Amino acid sequence: MNSPDAPPPQDDRYQVVALRYRPQSFGSLVGQGHIATALSNAINQNRVGHAYLFTGARGVGKTSSARIFAKCLNCEKGPTTEPCNDCDTCQSISVGEDVDVLEIDGASNRGIDEIRQLRSNVAVRPSRSRFKIYIIDEVHMLTQQAFNALLKTLEEPPGHVKFIFCTTDPQKIPITVLSRCQRFDFSPVETDKIALRLKEISDTEGVSASTEALQLLARRANGSMRDSQSLLEQLFSFCGDEITVQEVHQLLGTTDIGRVGEIAAAIVNKDTNGTLALIHANLSSGVNAGQLAGQLLGYFRDMMAVRVGCNEDTLINCAGPDIPVLEQHGQQLGLETILSTVQVFDNAIVRMQTSLHSRTLLEVAAVRACGLEHVDSISALVKALSAAGNLSAASQVGEKKAQKKKSQPK
Ligand SMILES: [Zn+2]
To answer: How remote is the CA of residue 74 from the centroid of ligand 1, in Å?
Structure first.
């Protein structure tokens, strides 16, 4: 029997990392424990529904879970919560080629005709397994008419049919369809769990990778296991058998957090000239302007978190040892100015997406950030002024009232 996590032997068809290391059982599904438990319980208690909706961001394991669930139900040694991954059925479901588990891409089969065809096939019994299982990916792409046609099947499904719908966008699914599904929300995978999985994969591939490098990759994947594995794969071909932080930065077009801190320090000290020189040095060494803007935004975001008293766990871009500097700079700038700085970089990043002049936009943002006045002291001043204004206005009203009283005839 194949171990569920071991990569299949290499053949002449090279398979990408994300596919090769796709989880084959609930046990190896990372970061979705609550879903694995609920689906396993349903199988153990013989309470499997006829329609499921898996929602969540891309690359968090929706389609993998759908396949695992299908194997649980149709494995020749099942129904079971631990499919054998060895029988013909399990193996053909794993590669998406089973006769009774039909995977449909909702984006390219979105019309009424495709769903009508599905409806006429639904009545036909499965050819060799217990259930006929339809996995519809990106189901939100179906047209309204297609949904209506699907609804008729969902209302009275034959006992041998199961539906598993996957979507990144559940809001686009009609409520009538939603209400006939058991819904499972997949969470973004935590950074530490992604990093751990990347470590297992690099070990299996015989590549040594530093913890810091993998953490950096995992953070960049932003909760998507698949994205993290695609990045890792690029690094495999980029680095050979050793992966360092520097190489990850090179691949991502980013710079290390120390150099981001240097630019931030220059901004805090309103050293416009120094800020531009540091940006120039970074861009000359291959850093991408858009990435650097994002890193600066992230750095000031962490400064904001520290400024309002958050602890190390809430830092996204910096780490524990950076806290004293963040504290000092945060105090120097004041909260309002930090917020304005974040806004300045965010605006620049948005504009960079439609501009050919990323570098200039980054520089303009940096100069603007250097020029931000100490907003906290300005707002204190404005408050003081308006308080004084109210005072004088109030005293004027008082005087007028007094005058009116005087002029009123007795
Ligand atoms: Zn099996």
So the answer is: 7
- Segment 129-148, tens digit of pLDDT: 999 999 999 999 988 888 98
Residue 3's pLDDT is what?
47
Total tally of structural domains belonging to the chain: 4
Query: What per-residue string of b and e applies to 47-71 under the rule 16 or more CB within 10 Å gives b?
Result: ebebbbbbbbeebbbbbbbbbbbbb
Centre of ligand 1 from the C-alpha of residue 43, in Å: 15
pLDDT at 359 over 90: yes
pLDDT tens digits, one per residue of 296-327: 999 999 999 999 999 888 888 888 889 999 99
CA of 11 to the centre of ligand 1 (A): 23
How many Å apart are CA 308 and CA 47, to the nearest integer?
Answer: 48
Last residue of a domain, one of 202, 222, 252: 252
Same domain, 172 and 195: no
Q: Residue 39 Cα, ligand 1 centroid: separation in angstroms?
A: 17
* Overall size of the chain counted in residues: 410
β-pairing, 161-167 with 132-137?
Answer: parallel
Q: How far, in Å, from the CA of 60 to the mean position of ligand 1?
A: 24
Ligand 1 center–CA 55 separation, angstroms: 26
pLDDT-based confidence at residue 262 (cuts at 50, 70, 90): very high
In a domain, 8, yes or no: no
- Ligand 1 center–CA 61 separation, angstroms: 20
Domain edge (last residue) among 132, 156, 185: 185
For residues 121 and 214, state if they share a domain. no
Q: Quote the pLDDT of residue 316.
A: 84
Same domain (yes/no): 25, 164: yes
Q: Look-up: residue for tokens 């004084």?
A: 388
Same domain for 58 and 179: yes
Same domain for 149 and 202? no
Cα–ligand 1 centroid distance for 33 (angstroms): 22
Residue 79 Cα, ligand 1 centroid: separation in angstroms? Answer: 9
pLDDT at 110: 82
Give the pTM: 0.77
Going by their DSSP bridges, the two strands 132-137 and 101-105 should be labelled as parallel
List the 132-137 sheet strands across, edge first.
101-105, 132-137, 161-167, 51-55, 182-185
How far is the centre of ligand 1, averaged over its atoms, from the C-alpha of 82 (Å)? 9
What is the extent of the structural domain holding 83?
A: 17-185
Whether residue 1 has pLDDT greater than 70: no
